[in-house]
Amino acid sequence: MEITLWDYSNIISKWLIYIGIAAAIGGPFIAALINATVNKKSLLNYIVISSVLGFAAVIINFFIQVGAFSETGLSGMFDTGLISFLWQSAVGDSVLWRLLAFTVLGFALLWSNLNAKYGTFSFKDATFTFLYAAAVFSFAYSFTFIGHSAVIGGAAKWLLAFHIITVSWWVGALYPLWLSCKLLPPPVLYKLMCLFGKIAIFMVGILIACGIGLLYLFLENPLALLTTTYGLAMLLKLIFVGSILLIAAYHKFRLVEEIQQQAGIKKLQKSIKNEMLIAVVILTITAVLSSILGPE
After folding, report:
1. Where does it live in the cell (predicted)?
2. SS3 string of the chain?
3. Percent of the chain with pLDDT over 90
4. How much is the mean pLDDT over the chain?
């Protein structure tokens, strides 16, 4: 299979979209768990910058797909006929819902900013919670229009949507948790990590259930994991996902008890940093799977 410049561009833009969605979902969630008196300026910057980047990547990715369809070079990205055609297709529906999600989240951040001082930014306002939930649903819904699951239809597209949202929640929460090691005193950090660990158990259950369901629908048989290009790429992703879950288990059952001391906090920071590096790889593989590889 020959990989074109359009394919590389598609992969990179999708990777940026996933980063933006992850920050938009995981960032506010962790911020809501942190005490309101903590200065959250750095956390807010993470959410805003990543979301703006994701918003721009959604638009850029749409024009990349137009250019790929046109096959007439860079000028093909602005073919008005193809732009109109794709905008009225499932691709356009997906783009619309993602842009809507980022916009709704932007309004949620603006609303909370108008009702709280910048340094003590509140993520627990009822209106913010409603808008945040609406944005998460919009992100999830956007994944039901395109991709391999949309072709299969039925439960597959919603399994993928829940899977992506769960992964995004996890990945997007990592940087805020890393920041928390700097922002919070040991006792407060301990409570945050314990609470996150309890919530994560439920989220991991959803992640695993959706993952198994997707593998069953996408692969003809278990051997396809070893005999097809798509299967091998999926297997590689599963290995990295397994690695990140093992690190999370280490945090919950061993390391969390050590963060009452400064040395334990440093170990936690380093471990979360390793998780973030693995998460970057997982999102990269996901971008490749959704762009140039598919079930046979």
Report:
1. Cell inner membrane; Cell membrane
2. CCCCHHHHHHHHHHHHHHHHHHHHHHHHHHHHHCCCCCCCHHHHHHHHHHHHHHHHHHHHHHHHHHHHHHCCCHHHHHCHHHHHHHHCCHHHHHHHHHHHHHHHHHHHHHHHHHCCCHHHCCCCCHHHHHHHHHHHHHHHHHCCCCCHHHHHCCHHHHHHHHHHHHHHHHHHHHHHHHHHHHHCCHHHHHHHHHHHHHHHHHHHHHHHHHHHHHHHHHCCCCCHHHHCHHHHHHHHHHHHHHHHHHHHHHHHHCHHHHCCCHHHHHHHHHHHHHHHHHHHHHHHHHHHHHHCCCCC
3. 26
4. 83
Residues in the chain: 296
The pLDDT of residue 17 is above 60: yes
Q: Which pair of tokens denotes residue 115?
A: 């009702």
Q: How many of the other CB atoms lie within 10 Å of CB of 37?
A: 9
Token pair listed for 36: 């309101």
| pLDDT reported for residue 211 | 78
Q: 215-218: long-range contacts (C-beta < 8 A, 24 or more apart)?
A: 217/149, 217/152, 217/155, 217/156, 217/159, 218/148, 218/152, 218/156, 218/295
pLDDT of res. 152 = 60
Model confidence band, residue 182 (pLDDT cutoffs 50, 70, 90): confident
HSE of 192, CA atoms in CB hemisphere, 13 A: 29
Q: How is the chain split into domains, by residue range? A: 5-291
Please, are residues 143 and 101 in contact by the beta-carbon 8 Å criterion?
no
